[in-house]
Amino acid sequence: MSITSVPTEQLDLFMALEPTVEKEVNRHVATAEEWFPHEYVPYDVGRTYAGVIEGGEGWEPGDSKVSPQSREALLVNLLTEDNLPGYHFALRSVFGQDGAYGYWTNRWTAEENRHGIVIRDFLTVTRAIDPVALERARMQHLQVGYAMPHGTDMLRGATYVAFQELATRVSHRNTGKASGDVLCERMMARVAKDENLHMIFYRNFIGAAFEADANQAMRAVTDVVTTFEMPGNTIDGFLRKSVAIANAGIYDLRLHHDEVVLPILRKWGVFDLTGLDAEAEQARERLAAFLENLDQAAARFEERRAEREARRAARQG
């Protein structure tokens, strides 16, 4: 088994958790449903773009049928999916390429690849987004590269992906709902379903890590939650785009706190654990304080957003 990238202090845990990985792989394969990207793309509405082929038409903002507030989210979602080569390399560096770990890495990558395929095809065919701007953004984003936030640390890497997969599921679902397009919503719901199954794999993996070594797992979870950033944070203009996405209610601090972080922490029972050592207990206290601050920040953002919406409604009234 190739385990050279796993930190030395985690090698025993890496070996101990392989039966869990095999169990979760088997559960995932039995649960996952086969689906085909081409079935979610309305090819009959497509028409040739201006360019190499004579008679094509350039993209215009009026071509898009999705809501303006979802357009930024669709762009961010697709660019995030496009960076799959970087994610695969990072996960393979953590999990290796052999045994159940290696099988999962490749299976996960194969499933994730469908997401970029279907979203790109849909957006291109339906003219939802300027394809020239999209391709330039893709080139720029992928050239930045991707580095796992916690390097080759197995526990922190898997913990990060557990939260990230659930965050992506929430973002995808809400992007589809906000699009105002029935077909777009159906497509994003299909993608989100995959993300949920991926989240369950990583969530259960870390759940087993808590059973094997609660102290290491507790420290890892605190480090990840308190420094969490979405993998698309290197997209050009990400801050502006994320603000627009938050203002639209697609993904904001409240959703991150209530629908992503807390459900997974509850599943692991992090605040019910007993017998932690002093360092792990300090980590849990730091996590609790962070969650309280996050909840307060979410409340402030909701208040400011409501005030902005009230002023906008007053002007329009």
UniProtKB/TrEMBL annotation:
Which EC class, in a word?
oxidoreductase
Residues binding Fe cation 1: E81, E112, H115, E195
Q: What is this protein called?
A: Putative acyl-[acyl-carrier-protein] desaturase DesA1
The coding gene here is desA1_2
Known CDD domains for this protein?
A: Acyl_ACP_Desat (cd01050)
| Gene3D superfamilies xref list | Ribonucleotide Reductase, subunit A (1.10.620.20)
Which organism is the protein's source? Actinomadura macrotermitis
- Source organism's superkingdom? Bacteria
Residue stretches in coiled coil: 273-311
Instruction: List the Pfam families.
Output: FA_desaturase_2
Family membership: Belongs to the fatty acid desaturase type 2 family.
Q: Where is the signal peptide?
A: none
Gene Ontology biological process terms from the UniProt entry: fatty acid biosynthetic process
